[in-house]
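Input record, target 12 of the design panel.
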């Protein structure tokens, strides 16, 4: 965390102290701040990718199940900005769709494809059913959403991130509990939620940092990781047992969605940190949150 990013948290510190939270607890909370990259579609920041655009894939790559949202240039996303061990070169393709999945299946709402630098690619005409309106009963609704997907350059801004959540989930009763180790988690999270709009950069796509959504109480990354385990267990219990613990997953990307009929919804791409370091993206899980 750079001194400049820490200085940007001064208004948060003042707000937390004003609420009567002890200074040592406020400073301990600030110590867990993370860098993150906010991607915006205007300004003079470095272009690091784009929303939409042509779908460029290796010849032998599978047909993605979901529409392409964004293509990112890994070489333009330094670790000191994102806080993530991203590949040093090549491209990340983010796929996803803002739709409510079957809550019993915990299926992923998207995927990620990594294309190393120098890999021959060709433009692929997607066969995705969402795009072509096939094999889906609600054709008009799905196509109307897809047609609103953004199509623009993405520019990088260095940002700072603190947790919005304050509860940990458990399969036992009660289902949630105060996060351990800190007596003021909820007050600090509330203070950050109330003042973060004046600190963080407003952009549609975020890389790294802490996840958030409209009703954050528990960590969206941990929740998505648990859904990933459930989804894999339904197909292969042995493979599910080998997945890392939820606390070992990180936020790869977050799309704060501004589409008609999906206002206030969010897609989170989460991945085991070790998988990211090893450039393995087959276990990425994408969760969709919407509070209509």
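The sequence produced for target 12 reads:
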């Amino acid at each position: 965390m750079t001194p400049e990013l820490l200085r940007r948290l001064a208004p948060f510190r003042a707000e937390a102290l004003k609420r009567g939270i002890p200074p040592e607890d406020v400073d301990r909370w600030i110590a867990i701040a993370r860098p993150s990259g906010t991607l915006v579609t205007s300004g003079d920041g470095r272009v690091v990718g784009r929303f939409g655009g042509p779908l460029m894939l290796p010849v032998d790559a599978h047909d993605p199940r979901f529409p392409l949202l964004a293509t990112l240039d890994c070489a333009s996303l330094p670790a000191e900005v994102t806080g993530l061990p991203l590949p040093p070169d090549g491209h990340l393709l983010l796929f996803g769709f803002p739709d409510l999945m079957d809550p019993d299946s915990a299926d992923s709402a998207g995927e990620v494809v990594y294309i190393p630098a120098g890999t021959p690619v060709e433009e692929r005409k997607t066969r995705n059913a969402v795009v072509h309106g096939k094999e889906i009963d609600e054709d008009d609704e799905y196509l109307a959403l897809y047609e609103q997907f953004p199509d623009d350059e993405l520019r990088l801004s260095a940002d700072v991130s603190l947790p919005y959540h304050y509860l940990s989930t458990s399969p036992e009763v009660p289902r949630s509990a105060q996060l351990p180790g800190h007596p003021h988690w909820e007050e600090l999270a509330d203070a950050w939620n109330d003042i973060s709009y004046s600190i963080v950069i407003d952009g549609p796509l975020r890389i790294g940092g802490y996840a958030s959504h409209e009703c954050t109480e528990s960590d969206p990354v941990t929740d998505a990781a648990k859904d990933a385990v459930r989804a894999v267990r339904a197909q292969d219990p042995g493979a599910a047992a080998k997945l890392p613990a939820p606390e070992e997953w990180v936020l790869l990307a977050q799309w704060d969605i501004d589409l008609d009929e999906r206002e206030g919804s969010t897609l989170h791409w989460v991945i085991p940190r070790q998988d990211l370091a090893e450039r393995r993206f087959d276990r990425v899980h994408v969760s969709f949150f919407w509070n209509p």
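The longest strand covers residues 152-161.
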